[in-house]
Known about the structure:
Number of strands: 2
CATH class of the domain at 29-101: Mainly Alpha
Oligomer: single chain
Low-confidence stretches: 21-25
Number of helices: 6
CATH superfamily of the domain at 29-101: Winged helix-like DNA-binding domain superfamily/Winged helix DNA-binding domain
Strand order of the largest sheet: 1-2
Helix content: 55-70%
Amino acid sequence: MGQSPYRENQIFQHSRALIASASYAPKVNGVNMYEKEEIIEKFKRNPCLKEVLQLYCDGFSAPEIARILNKSPDTVEHQFEKIIEITSAPNMHRAMVICIFYGIIVIGYVGE
Length: 112
C-alpha cells in the first residue's frame, strides 16, 4: 500500500532541502553549482554591482569608481558591501576572485 499524499509531500520537501544544502549540492571542481547560479543571477538582476566590480577588478579604487560612474564614494562603498554579501566573501578582493572564477567579470575587460 502506498504512502499518504501528505507523507509523500513531507519526503519530497525534505529531499529538496537536502539537495539544496551545500553538502549535497552538485559540485564541479569543488564549486557548489546551486550557489554559483544564485550568485550569477543576483549580478544579472543588478548590473550596477557588476559594473562597480568590473572597475574594481580593473584596478580602480572606490573614490575613482565613484568619479567614473558619477556616484558618491559612500554609494560605491555600499555597493562593495552588497557585493561582499552576495558572494559571501570576507573582502572585495576575494569577491573579485569568486566572480572571475564564475565568469561574472573578466580580467582586462574593455568597455562595451
